[in-house]
UniProtKB/TrEMBL annotation:
It comes from the Bacteria. Residues 144-219 form the Signal transduction histidine kinase internal region domain. This is Signal transduction histidine kinase internal region domain-containing protein. The chain crosses the membrane at residues 7-23, 29-52, 64-82, 102-123. Signal peptide: none annotated. GO terms for molecular function: phosphorelay sensor kinase activity.
Amino acid sequence: MIWLHSLVWALIFIISFFSMLPADGVERSAMSACISCIFYAFIIYGNISILYPRLYEKKKYVQYFLGAIVLLLIGGLGRGYLSMYIRNTSFASAPHWLEVQAHFTFLLSITTVFILSFIFRLAMAYFTVKRQSEEILLQRSETELRLLKAQVQPHFLFNTLNTMYYEAYMESPRTALLIERLSDIMRYFVDQSTKESVLLATEINFINNYIALERIRIKPEPEIIFHRSVDEDRKIPPMLLMTFVENIFKHGIDKITGNNKIDLLLCEKDGYLFFQTKNLINRYADSRQREGLGLTNLRQRLTILYGKDFEMHTEKDDQYFIASLKFPLT
């Protein structure tokens, strides 16, 4: 990518140099072309690397407009006065000053470059969104294909689990509850996980079923608190929240002392969904155990879905490991 940028700027320099060569000579043409490239780069990269992502993409249009004006004034007037200064000190027999018309000329040329950079950045954003959409469709197709390959007559399996549930209910209600939870989890994978979005209530129920199974498996039973303050009729992409919960039971459960405390928080604010998990650090975890790709895959999926409009963090102190996620609701 760096070599491509270098090639483009080399071509711009050459075009500028030869366009001014007949009138200004070699030295002045080289100087003017160099100054033009420097300030053009200042405008272009200042816009597409700073103003656009930090202001325009975050819908801070007034700040973006004001920032663009400042950028144009610095670029246009800076180019004009620097060119005039070098011309007066190196080439002119008598000092010259910028006329009013020259100010407008420099500002106009820089503004044209800025507009072109803005159009270019919009085109980049369009093709990025298009590529992400194609990746989502491909990911969905691959997921559906893997699911189809993994299914062995799912309806037969569910019917069998239902039969086992009724048989177990008479002898061991606790075992029957375990079978019911397992059936709900498997049905979620088959019916919901391939959809573009699911009800938040469905996702919460899936997490609750998973936690219920883990409670039965882990002795002594961990202390788990799940705080929720959300509109459960909202829709989100499936399986976005599950990675944090799964990581707790995979890496954070202390089976030696049995001292396990887990806090889950799910809430919404200003059109964003916020999910945080907090668990006591497992000090007896096997240091040789490799962390899975769950968090990496989750970040990649969030990037495909939301671009840069999400936040995902993990941190730990002397007692707790904390993971937090924030993404927009639709």
